[in-house]
C-alpha cells in the first residue's frame, strides 16, 4: 500500500509550496497512474518528477515510487528509492514497510534484510528523542478521534445514513471532538505545533486531525501556527493544504488546492 498518513488520497494538494509546478504535476500524474494500476508508467512519472526537481523529492513520494517499481517488478529501482529514504532521509516507519503488500516482491531480495535493519535503527534512534508522555496522550486522542468515525460507513450501510443509529454515533463523535479539542489546544498553546521528531508521526497527525475537526474560530487561530510548522518541517504539507481549503470554504472563499469534496 502506498505510504499515506490518512487523508493522503489528495495528492494534488500534497507537495510543499516551494516545489516546482512541474514536480507537483508529475507526482499527481504518477499517483493517478498508480490508482489505474499502470505501475510501470506510474514509476516512470515519479522518476520524471525527481529529475525535474534536481533529483530531490519528498520522502512520501520516493516511498510511493518504490511501491510502483516493486509492483512493476523492477526491484532494483524500488530498492534504490527505499534505500535513499532510509539512508539519506532517515525513514523510520518499520511497522508500515514490513506490512506493505505493495513491496512483497522485494522480500526475497538479498538487499531487503539490510534495508529493514536500517529502518529499524532509524526508528530506535528517533524514539530516543520522543516525548513519550505526550505520545501516550496523543495516541489516546487519536483513537477517540478515529475509532467512531471508522464506524460511520458500516453503521450507515446497516441502518441508513439518516438513521437514529448514525445520528447517535455523530453525537458521540461531537462529544469526543470537544474533549479532544480541549486537550490538544492545551498542548499547542504550551508547546507549539510539535513535529514527528518529538511526538512521532501519529502524534503529529493527531494535532492536525483534531484541528481539522474543530470549529472555524479554532481553525483560524491555529492555521498560522500550522503554516509556520510546515515551513519548519514540523507539519505535513498535505494536511496543511486540507486545512487551508477547509478554512477558505468556511470563510466563503474559493479553495486553494481543491481538496474538499463539496458534493
TrEMBL record:
Signal peptide: 1-18
Key words, A-Z: Signal
Protein name: Tetratricopeptide repeat protein
Amino acid at each position: 500500500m502506498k505510504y499515506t498518513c490518512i487523508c493522503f488520497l489528495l495528492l494534488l494538494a500534497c507537495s510543499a509550496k516551494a516545489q516546482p509546478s512541474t514536480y507537483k504535476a508529475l507526482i499527481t500524474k504518477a499517483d493517478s497512474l498508480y490508482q489505474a494500476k499502470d505501475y510501470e508508467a506510474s514509476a516512470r512519472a515519479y522518476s520524471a518528477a525527481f529529475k525535474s526537481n534536481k533529483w530531490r523529492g519528498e520522502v512520501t513520494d520516493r516511498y510511493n515510487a518504490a511501491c510502483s517499481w516493486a509492483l512493476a517488478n523492477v526491484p532494483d529501482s524500488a530498492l534504490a528509492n527505499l534505500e535513499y529514504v532510509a539512508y539519506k532521509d532517515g525513514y523510520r516507519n518499520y511497522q508500515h514497510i514490513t506490512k506493505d503488500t505493495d513491496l512483497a516482491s522485494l522480500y526475497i531480495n538479498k538487499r531487503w534484510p539490510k534495508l529493514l535493519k536500517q529502518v529499524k535503527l532509524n526508528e530506535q534512534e528517533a524514539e530516543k528523542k520522543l516525548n513519550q508522555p505526550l505520545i501516550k496522550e496523543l495516541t489516546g486522542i487519536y483513537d477517540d478521534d478515529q475509532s467512531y468515525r471508522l464506524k460511520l460507513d458500516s453503521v450507515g450501510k446497516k441502518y441508513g445514513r439518516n438513521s437514529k443509529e448514525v445520528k447517535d454515533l455523530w453525537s458521540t463523535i461531537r462529544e469526543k471532538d470537544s474533549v479532544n479539542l480541549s486537550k490538544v489546544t492545551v498542548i499547542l498553546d504550551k508547546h507549539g505545533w510539535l513535529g514527528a521528531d518529538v511526538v512521532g508521526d501519529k502524534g503529529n497527525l493527531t494535532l492536525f486531525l483534531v484541528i481539522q475537526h474543530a470549529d472555524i474560530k479554532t481553525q483560524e487561530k491555529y492555521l498560522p501556527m500550522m503554516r509556520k510548522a510546515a515551513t519548519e518541517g514540523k507539519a505535513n504539507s498535505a494536511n496543511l493544504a486540507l486545512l487551508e481549503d477547509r478554512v477558505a470554504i468556511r470563510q466563503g472563499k474559493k479553495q486553494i488546492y481543491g481538496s474538499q469534496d463539496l458534493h
